Amino acid sequence: MPSPVLLLGLLVLLACARLYLRQGSLIFRPGPAVSGSPADLGLRFEDLGLRCADGVMIQGWWVPGRMESKSVVFFHGSDGNITHELATLRFLHGLGPNVLMVDYPGYGRSDARTSERGCYQAAEAAWSFVTESRGFHGEDVIVFGQSLGSAVATYLATTRTCGGLVFQSGFSSVPDMAAAIYWYLPVRFFVHTRMDSLRRIAGCHCPVLVLHSEDDEHIPVAQAFRVYAQAPGPKKFVRLGGPHSSTQWRRDPDVRAAWTELLAGRTEQWPGALPHRDGGPPPAAGRLPGDAQEGTGALARGGAGRQGPHAPDS
Question: Is 191 helix (H, G, I), strand (E, B) or coil?
Answer without folding.
Answer: coil
